[in-house]
Amino acid sequence: MVANPLRVAPGASGVETIQRSSSLDYYLVLPRHDDRDPTTAVEGILVEEFTRQHDHSTTGLDNAGWTSESGWWSSASLSRAIRTDPEMLARVVPTSRREAESVYRTLGGGQLPDDTVLRTYFLDHQSIANAPPLRLGPEQPPAGFHERRVYRVLFAKELRAEQVTSLRVVWRPPAGGTSASAASGHLEKDGDEFAWDLRRVGHTLAWCLDVTVLLSTATTDAVGAILSDLTTVLRQHGLIPVTTERFA
Q1: What is the pTM of this model?
Q2: Element (DSSP H or E) covering residue 27
Q3: Which residue of 154, 157, 221, 228 has the smallest Cβ count within 10 Å?
């Protein structure tokens, strides 16, 4: 199993910020079930990156795919399909850059280009509708904080029971956490507070992560970092991020 990037600090209920080897998201693309050759476990790789507003909500998605037969290409329709089509969902597996590098070499691609070069292959941008934040919950933040934000990160694909159990252990849900959530957690960082709950939603989108942010500091840099780290740990448990919406 891939190590969880949000590591629990000894004796604390929070998490440590990780150092990611890449800001891009990597996926392995498996052959179609009918075309699968026992000697070919992976057909190619897919690289993605979300575009975001200054408040970290999603505005779009870029991608580049590669197979040994076709080389590099870009397809917004593929990014949509791996989030909505059951067949494509079954064929795409979140992975790390390190593993993508290994697969790329094994399939004859040589050395995987760095992030800067990979972004030049992003030729078919997928726009994602973005509206002003809905005002859900209390308008005023609690005493000691100057702003309250609520984010929802939507995910496709499924989690196995043991993966949900793993998340509960790693995140160490706080006392009095939401019983309706599959897993939850809490973090205090430099005076700011973050609390999150993972829940099932709908039929097409399998899961959502609701994150409540209470800001006491002047900077919002930690918001983007925490949202990214939480999304990364869920990718490493097999989920595929769809979008990040802001509700407050």
Answers
A1: 0.85
A2: strand 25-29
A3: 221
